[in-house]
Amino acid sequence: MPGSGPAGSGSAAGALDVSVGKIRREHLGQLLRSKTFIVGATILLFWIVCALFGSLFEPSNPLNGNFLQFNLAPSASHWFGTDYLGRDVVSRVIAGSRDILIVAPLATLLGTSVGTAIGLAQGYFGGVVDNVVGRLVEAVLALPVVIVAFLFVVALGPSSRTLILVIGFVFALLIARTVRTAVLQERELDYVAAASLRGEGALHIMFAEILPNVLSPILVEFTVRLGYAIFAIATLSFLGFGIQPPTPDWGADISYTYSLLGAGYWWETLFPALAIASLVVAVNLVADSIEVVLVQ
Amino acid sequence: MARFLLKRLGLALLTLVILSLIIFFAGRVLPGDPGRAILGPFAAESAVKALDKSLGVDRPLISQYWGWVSGFVRGNFGLSYQFQSPVRPFVFTALGHSLKLAAVAFVIVVPLGIFGGVVAALNFGKWIDRVISVSGLSFSTVPEFVSGVVLIVIFAIWLKVLPVTATWPPGSPVFTQLKYLILPAIPLVLILFGYIARMARAGTLEALDSDYVRTATLKGLPRRVVIFRHVLRNSLLPTITVVATQTGYLIGGLVVVETLFNYQGIGRLIFTAAKDKDFPMLEAGILTIGVVYLVATIIADVLYTLLNPRVRLESSE
């Protein structure tokens, strides 16, 4: 931090921490009183437990099927039935939470951090940087996120790393737009002028002064985008360009089993579908209640 | 008005150019050698070179991009790798099918969404408002193939009232075609309902809070008249914009729905092209979606301006 005395910046940061801490505790209390949040968080927690410890309570191995027992309807020994390769559907559904709950948060995290940096620069510097990024965002927004991601994943070849990079990149542009708007309002405030009069560098003002004050919209963006990331990754997996078999994945499992629906083997498709639905709805309930609490 | 329109058109064209660059980059530069992609890893190097030359992909990228974009403007969308014939008829036929499906979805969702939003706003804070808002939000986040699968299981397999696919027997009358289109349209309806209802709700709440509605109520007009004449007229304006911006999304959502229901629209065309690594087809399909979206937003802007005198006056200054 060139130009600022260590004592001065230390006490300012200390005061900030106290107020931020107080606000967070208040918000947490408000969240815990919200029914939407409790329902969403409980379902989300269930799937996180499945992703982390699923292998401990899966009834059988999700990868190895019994070839003599394929397409069995739900029964006492196989609650959700077995699939076309004789694999236990309950175990596939539990194990299917793993990859999507790794890939989606990583993609969202990448998008949020890169997007925040771009948005801060856009809002703070304005001018050419702002214009160029703004045009790029417009163009990307002319297509649905799933289509843009689809195009790039097809071009680069599907893998978890590609999914994270592509979705992270698209999200970065979208998140930059929100952060930019927030920064534009902050930039006019006195504390920014004071910092620049003190002789602080642009990086310090952007990341140490403005960033802590625009954390709320960024947090909201993160949770909302996490829902979208799950949506997009599940969709890409369903189209065959996301998480690749034989890794258990809900979207990929559906893409291999939905053609059997006509033959009446509905359980192989329906249960992974309900799993995806419950996960995205849970994430969005959490996101929505966080938004209600933070943006009042 | 004319200046406003010209400015909008100019911006849309610029967006389209950037979009075409992105698509060109993803479709031509990232995948590497197209000849290798078509012939596979075991083909002789000389054969790959010859094919690249005949496809014109050995030229510098700038001249390739120019050839592609100027062709697109003149109506020449390129040659399909897979079918060895022009891409355009495929894209146009598929787009026609998709618009049909999209029209069915819109006809259902626009009145339904507006109705839901207005009812929620009129019952602000009551349980019915919560139910409409939360279910709208939840439905709009569930991927189309997920709700599609659930719908197929319920209506086509358990109840056996609607067909599993969207492909009707050739020569079916319009009514039979509709029966095949209802099930694929519902996942799109579910996604869009939340957005439209949310906008209609916000617009209605704002109008209810306005001075002119208070005046209308105070001068003794019946509530029904206040709502139809004063509230709805103002609250539905922003909704028009949302409906248009969602058109682009809708066409994109078709990729999934058309794949699931085996319907030969532009979504299924893009999906098949991607599976076959038929990049000219894929690029043309995606660029067409972008064009449709931009046209829809411009139409929405114009409509909004024509219907809203305040914006009209501001823009003419």
In summary, what is this structure?
The complex is a heterodimer of chains A (296) and B (317). Chain A has helices at residues 6-32, 35-57, 89-95, 97-125, 127-141, 145-156, 160-187, 190-197, 202-210, 215-238, 250-257, 267-294. Chain A is an all-alpha fold.
How is this structure best described in words?
The complex is a heterodimer of chains A (296) and B (317). Chain A is mostly helical and 296 residues long. Chain A is built from twelve helices and no strands. Chain A starts with 5 loop residues before the first helix and ends with a helix. Chain B is an all-alpha fold and 317 residues long. Chain B has helices at residues 2-29, 34-39, 45-55, 61-74, 88-122, 127-139, 144-158, 174-208, 211-218, 223-235, 237-261, 266-275, 279-307, 309-316. In chain B, α5 packs antiparallel against α6 and α11 packs antiparallel against α13. The radius of gyration of chain B is 24 Å and the shape is globular.
Task: Identify the notable features of this structure and list them briefly.
heterodimer; A: mainly alpha; 12 helices; elongated; disordered N terminus; B: 317 residues; mainly alpha; MetI-like fold; 2 domains; globular
Task: Compile the SSE list and pairings.
The complex is a heterodimer of chains A (296) and B (317).
Chain A: H1 6-32, H2 35-57, H3 89-95, H4 97-125, H5 127-141, H6 145-156, H7 160-187, H8 190-197, H9 202-210, H10 215-238, H11 250-257, H12 267-294
Helix pairs in contact in A: 2-4, 2-12, 3-12, 4-5, 4-7, 4-10, 5-7, 6-7, 6-10, 7-10, 8-9, 10-11, 10-12, 11-12
Chain B: H1 2-29, H2 34-39, H3 45-55, H4 61-74, H5 88-122, H6 127-139, H7 144-158, H8 174-208, H9 211-218, H10 223-235, H11 237-261, H12 266-275, H13 279-307, H14 309-316
